[in-house]
Amino acid sequence: MITVPAGSSLTMRCPDTQPIVLVSLAEVSAPFLAELPPIPVLSLDGPGVRRIGILELVTASGVTWVEAELRNDQLTVIGDAPTDVVQRRAATRRPGNYPAIGTAEIETIDGRQRVPITGRVEDISTDGLLLRATTDDNLPALPYGIERILLHVTMPWGEMTATITTVDQRADLLRGTFEWIDPSGATELARFCLGR
Q: Which of 64-68, 100-104, 175-179 has the lowest mean pLDDT?
C-alpha cells in the first residue's frame, strides 16, 4: 500500500522553471503508485494552469520520483511509474491520530514567547513527528517562527512527553525532530514503531 500523508512536502521539477514545493492537503492511498488518485495540494497557480514534470513523491514508506501533472491544485501521476520506493529515513514511520497538547516557544522581535497549542500528531517515528495544531485563538495557522515545542502526546501505551525542534512549518502543520523524549516514552516509542 502506498500512502501519501497529509502535510507532505512534494517537490515538482518542471523544464525551464525553479522547483515548485507543494504541500499535500489530504491523505491519499492506493495499492500501487500508478493507481494513486489525484493528490489535492496547496499550489500558487491560477485556474487552468497546467504543469508536467518530475515529482519527488513523499510516501509513508519513503520517497520516489514519478512523472506527474499539476492542474487546478491536483497532482496526478502520469506515464510509467517506477517500481521502487527509496526509504530516505532511517526510522520507520507510523501514521495515526494521537491527541497532543503543549507549549510552543516562538522567537519574535520582542524576544521569546511561549504559546499553548492543541492538536494531534499525524505521523511519528523514533526521529520525529508531524503535528497538526492550533493555538488558543483557534486561527487556522500556527504562529510563525516556532523554534521548539514541549509536547504531551497521548499514545496507545499512555502519555509521552517530548521536546520537538522545528524542521518545517506551514499553516497548521509542523514537522520536527525529537530533541528530548522522556526515557520510558523513548523505549515505548521504539517498540511501537518497530511493531508494525
A: 64-68
